[in-house]
Amino acid sequence: MGRKFVAGGTFTDPRGRERFALVCPGREEKPLVMGDSLSRYFIQIWHHAHLYRVEKDFSLTLVAASPVALKGGVKAPERVTPSAAWLDRLRELVSLS
Question: What pTM does this model have?
Answer without folding.
Answer: 0.82
